[in-house]
Amino acid sequence: MKIAHISDIHAAEAYFLPELAENVIAKLNELEPEILVVTGDLTIGGYPHEFERARRFIDRIACEVSLVIPGNHDVRNLGYLGFETIFGPRSKVERYREVTLVGIDSAQPDLDEGHVGREKYEWLERCLTHHPDDLNVVALHHHVIPVPKTGRELNILTDAGDLLELLMRCHVDLVLCGHKHVPWVWNLDGMVIVNAGTVCSNRVKWQIPQSFNLIELDDRKRGAIDIFRISARGEQELVFSRGHEEEDAV
Ligand SMILES: [Fe+2]
Ligand SMILES: [Fe+2]
């Protein structure tokens, strides 16, 4: 099963790169992911025309199920209302085959820092334990662990410690984040935390081009995961792999 993870579309005139967006759409449709996860920052100012452009982009990516959550930019200027109108609830749970996907809104109006909040913990725990044999995937915009090459630490979840403890306790397999526009993977005692870059905006840092993640789950072997970083120009790199040790040994 394939999960495509894209983030930080920033679909405003001054930042969105249509030519790269076309490349990404073509590449994703060629890869045929079953699940699409979009970890926020669809817009710059939470304005209606930005949401519409982001929606047109997302709608052209074929998949069985998609999970879209807001970022800090999307809840500016009452953007959280626009987000709900176009993409539905800001926090939500989906299930596809034996994969439980939980999207958490970590954004707060007119603040850049992330926050999940104790009021969501009970709901989150229920979602993550309802199907005990499922592979659990959690998506949120803000990073839960600092990401290299992002300078002085800012905007990390204010309740990152409590959230991490909850996710570990509920045996979450994958955590998907965006926000810093720097792709990275951390393996925290078996819980794989995957950050995505910006997919097709010009808001890139030096030498960190636009990219997205493709996560391949082995249907025959629970926990076997390959993660590819794919640049918007199409270069592909395997950045994480686990669970194939026995096969390799044979
Ligand atoms: Fe962003
Ligand atoms: Fe952000």
What does this entry look like structurally?
The chain is α/β, with parallel strands linked by helices and 250 residues long. It contains six helices and twelve strands. α2 (48-59) links the parallel β2 (35-39) and β3 (65-69). α2 (48-59) runs parallel beside α3. The protein is globular and about 50 Å long. It starts with a strand and ends with a helix. Bound molecules: fe (ii) ion (2 copies). One fe (ii) ion (FE2) is lined by residues 41, 71-73, 141, 179.
Topology (elements, then pairings):
Blueprint: E1 2-6, H1 18-31, E2 35-39, H2 48-59, E3 65-69, H3 79-87, E4 92-96, E5 99-104, H4 121-129, E6 135-140, H5 160-169, E7 174-177, E8 184-188, E9 191-195, E10 211-217, E11 225-231, E12 236-242, H6 245-249
Parallel strand pairs: 1-2, 2-3, 5-6, 6-7, 7-9
Antiparallel strand pairs: 1-10, 4-5, 8-9, 10-11, 11-12
Bound molecules: fe (ii) ion (2 copies).
N-C termini distance = 24 Å
**Which ligands, by name, code or SMILES, are bound?**
fe (ii) ion
Task: Indicate the low-confidence ranges by residue numbers.
Answer: none
Describe the global form.
globular
Give the neighbour order of strands across the main sheet.
3-2-1-10-11-12
Output mean pLDDT: 96
Number of helices, where a helix is a run of at least 4 consecutive DSSP H or I residues: 6
Question: Which structural class do the helices and strands define?
Answer: alpha/beta
Number of strands: 12
CATH classification, class level: Alpha Beta
Write a short abstract of this structure.
The chain has 250 residues and is α/β, with parallel strands linked by helices. The chain is built from six helices and twelve strands. It has a six-stranded mixed sheet, with helices on one face. The chain has a six-stranded mixed sheet with strand order 4-5-6-7-9-8, covered by helices on one side.
